[in-house]
Amino acid sequence: MNSTDKQAALIAAIAELDEQSALALVRQRIAAAEDPLLILGDCQEGMRQVGERYERNQYYLAGLIMGGEIFRQVMELLQPVVESRISGRASGRILLGTVQGDIHNLGKNIVAMLLRCHEFTVYDLGVDVSPVEFAERAREIQPDIVGLSGLLTSSYEAMRETVALLRADGNRAPIIIGGGQLNEQVCQYVEADYWNTDAVVGVDLCQRLVTEAARAEKDQDR
Ligand code: B12
How far is CA 75 from the centre of its chain? Predict the structure, then answer.
């Protein structure tokens, strides 16, 4: 199989909820020393297609649950590979969580893992986190960045409330919202600073933000 075929086969195996094939294909690609982030990207595309089939009533809730379970197992295989391959020196503190009413955590957990690989200290509050909890923990931790994850349309309201409460509390850390369904319009509605649908790009953004903040602080000291 060439690499395009391998990618298509993995995407299809996940979209078809074929657990055994999906895990076998991931194992093969790990053994071939492929970039784990590329493998992850294909799995994410497979999950997007699971969601599409759910929307078209080809799958029911059990399909989403099964997709989530396959992805969790893929992550178990990929996590040690990602951790052994990637390291960095960004060092910042990020407060992260899935917002109130939303329990999707696979994407958030990937972001947390990649940030840790880049030497960020991640305070992961888990899922279904209320605006008040975000605000209280932000006061206590004083993070450099706040990351709000959410995949449901109904999460946007919780994101908006969380941003409003953090700002009312005087917290000025950049706020990034993340999740596969987000776009610029949602970001404006929520009044977050940035939005993101890809963990690798999101981690680059976090690195840039802490580097710029450190530089600005240095300039002020001069
Ligand atoms: C798996 C899944 C589930 C699993 C979740 C398991 C788990 N532990 O997370 C379960 C079965 C629990 C589930 C439940 C539901 N789900 Co669901 N689910 C999905 C599915 C198929 C995949 C999500 C996923 O994990 N993708 C893979 C990850 C890696 O991608 P990601 O989350 O986007 O994360 C990436 C980026 O966005 C980014 N990122 C994410 N967060 C952050 C945060 C920061 C700070 C940054 C920088 C980056 C970042 O990095 C990640 C890696 O690149 C999606 C389909 C889709 N298109 O997303 C539907 C989907 C999100 N679900 C949907 C629905 C409707 C539901 C339910 C309401 C179903 C029901 N009737 O009960 C419930 C809601 C439960 C709740 N209260 O939250 C809809 C939402 C529609 C909408 N517009 O609101 C979707 C879009 C399916 C669809 N197309 O209809 N679901």
Answer: 13
Which residue type occupies 111?
Answer: V
**What are phi and psi for residue 99, nearest 5 degrees?**
-75, 170
Minimal-distance CA residue to ligand 1 atom 20: 51
- Are the CB atoms for 62 and 116 separated by under 8 Å? no
Q: Is the CB of 110 under 6 A from ligand 1?
A: yes
Separation of CA 151 and ligand 1 centre (Å): 5
Read off the pLDDT of each residue in 44-61 and give the average, rounded to a whole number: 95
Residues 17 and 112: their CA atoms lie apart, in Å, by 25
Contacts of 169 (CB under 8 A, 6+ apart): 135, 138, 139
Query: Hey, which residues does 93 pair with through a beta bridge?
Result: 121
pLDDT at 136: 97
- Give yes or no for residue 50 CB within 6 A of ligand 1: yes
Q: How many CB atoms lie under 10 A from the CB of residue 153?
A: 9
Q: Is the pLDDT of residue 44 over 80?
A: yes
Please give the distance, rounded to the nearest whole angstrom, from the Cα atom of residue 90 to the centre of ligand 1.
28
pLDDT in tens, 119-167: 899 999 999 999 999 999 999 999 999 999 999 999 999 999 999 999 9
| pTM flag (> 0.85) | yes
